Amino acid sequence: MSAPTTCPASSVNKTQDACPLTLVDQEPQHTSLASAVENRPTTRNEGGCPFASKAKDDIKDMMTQSYVDHPITHEVKISNLNHYLPETKSKKSQDFLSDPQLAMAMKEGTKVIHSAAENSVFTKRFMSGTISIDEYGRYINSLYFVYKTMEDLLAQHKDNPLIKLVYFPYELTREKSLMKDLEYYYGKDRVAELTDFKNITPAVKTYVNALKDAAEKNPALLIAHSYSRYLGDLSGGQILAKRLKKHVLKRDVTDASWDSYHGLEFYNFNHIRSPNEFKNLYRQRLDESPVTQYTKDLIVAEAIYSFELNIALFDEIQALSDSKQLHPTVDYDDVESIDSALGTTGETKHAFLPNADWLVGFATGMATFAVGLSLYHRFSDSL
């Protein structure tokens, strides 16, 4: 039995009977693999090269046949195969959607992760009013870094065609509001340290870096974060504010302090007349935004990611609380005792504690009053 014919494609020395795919004496022009498959011989040597044949001239003619002349090119354009390549698949369509419905897509796309966020331990405790004032202080401290970064990036890319549609800094910016709240809970002298980016926690750092990465990849992705943050603040945030007033700040609905936003400036959108009307406008702008299907999918995916980042932030606060690593807020027991002594309302009570000058002045005044009263009695007795 003769030795089986082997394919010499892997051999360094090309022989006369080599596989035609390794021909070096002439370079094929416009080689078509499809034509090679369609016209290859139906018989083959057992165990040998599937392209081996004695009809070498026919094979050479086949290999040099222009792909333009082959009938398969009338059905499949070579360029049409490009969208299967990784670098071009994501860019297969650059056409803007006629009806993108971006807001609806984000709402539907984040339903599952939104539910997961609502069921985190910290969120449940927040909604039930069982979080401590130190935990809430840590919460707004974390949010300060998130909003500071997001709002700086939005301002930097405000001329982006998509961002400019929903860029409302006058109505929405939260950085200054959060700063006021931090001063309320920690005192002005501690805010500089608490808002130093050198002191951010791991989950917050991940959140901040994610915002920067999104802006670098495609500034339009910032829309996903502004959507999940601002619309959430205008919706569920208002419910949380009432929980905080009642359970954390211990304000009574019948007191004048109930309508105050002291310590809750974060939820005070005083430049928006009607939150519902504004939210409808915001969603309408998103639904009319000029996006391709690819960009739309990216934004929805980023919106989902924003919820994941928030869940990580909630979990971190819970872990810090469990391990007793939270920064202490001001002593509200002292504040309430001062309020009772002076007959002040909850609306103004916080102004007394962090102001050391006031306390010194008050003590000095009381001492002066005592000395004066003593002198009065002394002189009155001698009369």
Automatic annotation (TrEMBL):
One of its GO terms (molecular function) is hydrolase activity. Pfam families: Heme_oxygenase. Residues 33-45 have a biased composition (Polar residues). Residues 33-54 are annotated as: Disordered. SUPFAM superfamilies: Heme oxygenase-like. It comes from the Eukaryota. Keywords: ATP-binding, Helicase, Heme, Hydrolase, Iron, Metal-binding, Nucleotide-binding, Oxidoreductase. It catalyses: heme b + 3 reduced [NADPH--hemoprotein reductase] + 3 O2 = biliverdin IXalpha + CO + Fe(2+) + 3 oxidized [NADPH--hemoprotein reductase] + 3 H2O + H(+). One of its GO terms (biological process) is heme catabolic process. Its EC number is 1.14.14.18. The keyword Iron applies. Belongs to the heme oxygenase family. PANTHER family: HEME OXYGENASE. This is heme oxygenase (biliverdin-producing). It comes from Mucor velutinosus.
